[in-house]
UniProtKB/TrEMBL annotation:
It comes from Vreelandella azerica. Keywords: Dipeptidase, Hydrolase, Manganese, Metal-binding, Metalloprotease, Protease. It is an enzyme of class 3 (hydrolase). GO terms for molecular function: aminopeptidase activity; metal ion binding; metalloexopeptidase activity; phosphoric triester hydrolase activity; proline dipeptidase activity. Belongs to the peptidase M24B family. Bacterial-type prolidase subfamily. Residues 166-424 form the Peptidase M24 domain. Its cofactor is Mn(2+). GO terms for cellular component: cytosol. The keyword Protease applies. It holds the Pfam family Peptidase_M24. This is Xaa-Pro dipeptidase. Residues 10-152 form the Xaa-Pro dipeptidase N-terminal domain. Mn(2+) 2 binds at D243, D254, E417.
Amino acid sequence: MPESLHQQQSDHLQHLLNAYRSLMSQFNLDAIAIYSGHPSAHYADDQLANFQAYGHFVHWVPLVDAAHSWLVIHPDARPTLHLHAPADFWHQPTTLPEEPWVGEFEVVLCNDIQTPQLSQNSAWIGDAAALEQAGLAVPEGAANPHSLLLALDELRVIKSDYEISCIREANRLAMAGHQAAHAAFAGAASELDIQLAYLAASRQRESQLPYASIVGMNEHAGILHYQHYNAQTTHQRFSLLVDAGSRYRGYSADITRTHLGPDAPALFEALIDALHDLKDQLIEKAKPGQRFTALQEEMHQSLADILIHHDLYRGSAESAVSEGVTRAFCPHGLGHLLGIQVHDVAGLRTPAGEPAPAPSEHPALRLTRELEVGMVITIEPGLYFIPMLLAPLRQQSLPINWILVEQLTPCGGIRIEDNIVITENGHENLTP
C-alpha cells in the first residue's frame, strides 16, 4: 500500500471523526455506534450466505468481512473498534493488518459476540431486526434515528481523496479482468469460462465481488441482470456483454463492456462504436452543477439520433423519444452513485435529505441529484433488442425497421460503462 494512501486514509478518518462529532453535538448524543452485521444461514441449513459488512462500518474500517463487530465513535476519545475475533479452529478469524490506520482506533478483540455498553442518550445504526432474530443483545440507545441516518448517508455522497484512490485501484483490477474476459471470448470460451478468466485476472474469488458479474453472450446480452453462466460453448458468437467489477479496501468498481462476435451482422459493430462515442460525449458533459436527469434525457435524444442514423427508425428524433421508442431500446437509467455500495446511498434524495424520486418517464433512474465535486458516478448508456419490450411497439404504426431489428435481436444488446469522479474542472475518468 503506497505511503500516500496511508496519509489519505488518515485524513479521511479525521474528516469522519470531525463530521460524526459535529452530528453528536447537533443531536445531543453521547456516542454513535455502528454494527457491522452478520451472515445469515440458508433456510433449514447450516451454510451461511455470502457476507459483506454494513456500508457505514466500512466507511471507517476497511474490513469488509468483519462480522459481529461494532465501532463506537465518542465525542472526546478515539473511536473504539470492538472486533469479533474468536479463537476458532473451524474458521480463520478476522485479523487486523499491520497498517497505520489501526492506530487511529482503540481496538478491543472480542472472543465472544458482545454488544457495546451505550447510554440511553446514544444512537446506534445497523440491522436491528437481524440482531433480534439471531437472539443477540440489542444495545441501549436509539436504533437507526431517521435524521441521523440521512446525515450519515449524505456523508458518503462526496468522496474523500482516499476513497477516490480506492475506487481508481478497483477500476484497474476490474479492467484487467475485462481484458481477460475479452480474450477468452475471442478464444471461443463459454460464459462460465469467461467468468473464471475474469476472476483470475482481477485476482478475486466470486464471494468477494461487489456484485454478481453479468456475463451474457448473444441474446443473453439483452437480459439486463442476466444471472447464469452457461458452461456450454455456443456454435455462433454474435456478442458478449460483461458487466463486472472489483473491490479494493471496501470500495467498488462497476464497469461494462460489449464485444463483437465473429458471427454478428456488420451493423452491430457500428452500433457498439456509436455507444462508445455516446458514453464519451455524456462523460464530457459531467461537471459540477449538471443535473443528472438532464444527462438522462440527453442520452435518449442521442439514442434517437443513433436509431435514425443506422436506419432502425425512420421517423423524427422527437417522435422516437415522445412515443417511447428509445425507452424500449434502453429501459434503464444512465448511471448511479458509486462507492462502498455499487448503487451507493442517497442518489434519490436532495442534499437536505428530501425525496427526489426518478421522473415517471424514467422510473429506473437511480440518480436525480445535481452533480457535485467529489461525487463518483457511473455513465452507462445502453441499446438493446429485447423482444418483451419491443413487442408493444409492433402494435403501433411506428416507422421502425423491423427487418433490421430482427437481424440484430440475436446479439442481445450493448452497454458501455465507465466510472468517473466529478472535479472542480469537470471530471476524471477512473476507468483505464
